[in-house]
Amino acid sequence: MKETILRRKSTRVYKKHHLSQSEISEIEKVLDNYEGFKGPFNNSIEISMNIADSMTIEGKKINTYGILRNVSAFIKGKCQNNLEALVDFGYVYEMIILELTKKGFATCWVGGTFDRKTYPINLKENEILPAILTVGYSKSISLINGMLKVAMSSKRLPIHDIIINYADVVTNFDMIDLLELVRRGPSASNKQPWRMLIKNNMVHFYLKRTPDYPKINLGFDMQILDIGIAMSHLEIGLNSYDIAFNKNVIKDPEIFEEMEYIITYELSK
């Protein structure tokens, strides 16, 4: 999974390809493995897949505002509209994306660039559809992909901008290498709103929201999903280095201006 994080890229233009039954079964197997899977705050996500050919409701196609091309399948999930459930949604969805990447599929997180009114899903009170996941095979040569790569740069923030006390941990090369996996996490518009304070074998996660983001009202805080993604990458890194850990919400976290404390990982070797 560590190597998968480093090579996985978001794909917006796919090959024109109808999934075979064996390919559908491969995707469904991944989804089955994560059905009921608990995130850091102990929430599970209800997940299902729709093949793109059947993705219509009342005769209308799913509207992704022209951002996506030739999607083979869509994966949807729903959760409660609160911070803990949204963190867990981001965490579980990213794990699914990485498993699909390992199997050779191309994927893309889609949050604010699809019309939820055209997507068939039944929501209960306080339930939301935070994002969908597109699946297919990457079209290696594409003018549109090239244009989007420029518009949506794959660059990430430097690691010293993400670690609050970077100067204190810079000499711990193993930890810096591990945290590079977190730095490589995808996020909405590459805003990377997560911050980490590392002290006494503890990694404290904070959310630093981007002012006025997103520009449209989605009815939930999209950047909370990004925290869940970052946490999944941290756990993958910790597991790859055989570092045991516990998660908990501490009572009196350090306070930083314009940041919201989320959770703490206590590490032990």
* SSE topology string: HHEEEEHEEEHHHHEEHEE
Tell me the fraction of residues in β-strands, as a range: 15-25%
- Put simply, the count of helices is 8
What is the end-to-end distance? 20 Å
Q: Rg from C-alpha positions? A: 18 Å
Percent helix range: 25-40%
The tally of domains stands at 2
Q: If you average the pLDDT, what whole number results?
A: 84
CATH third-level topology of the largest domain: NADH Oxidase
Q: What would CATH call the architecture of the largest domain? A: 3-Layer(aba) Sandwich
Give a short summary of the structure.
By secondary structure, the protein is α+β, with helices and mostly antiparallel strands. It is 32% helix and 21% strand. It has two domains: 2-146, NADH Oxidase (3-Layer(aba) Sandwich), CATH 3.40.109.10; 159-268, 3-Layer(aba) Sandwich (NADH Oxidase), CATH 3.40.109.10.
Describe this structure in words.
By secondary structure, the chain is an alpha+beta fold. It has 8 helices and 11 strands. Strands 1, 4, 5, 6 and 7 form a 5-stranded antiparallel beta sheet that branches. A 4-stranded antiparallel beta sheet has the order 8-9-11-10. Strand 2 and strand 3 (60-61) form a beta hairpin. Helix 2 packs antiparallel against helix 3, helix 3 (83-102) crosses helix 8 and helix 7 runs antiparallel to helix 8 (223-240). It is globular, with a radius of gyration of 18 Å. Mean pLDDT is 84; it is low at 54-60 and 141-153.
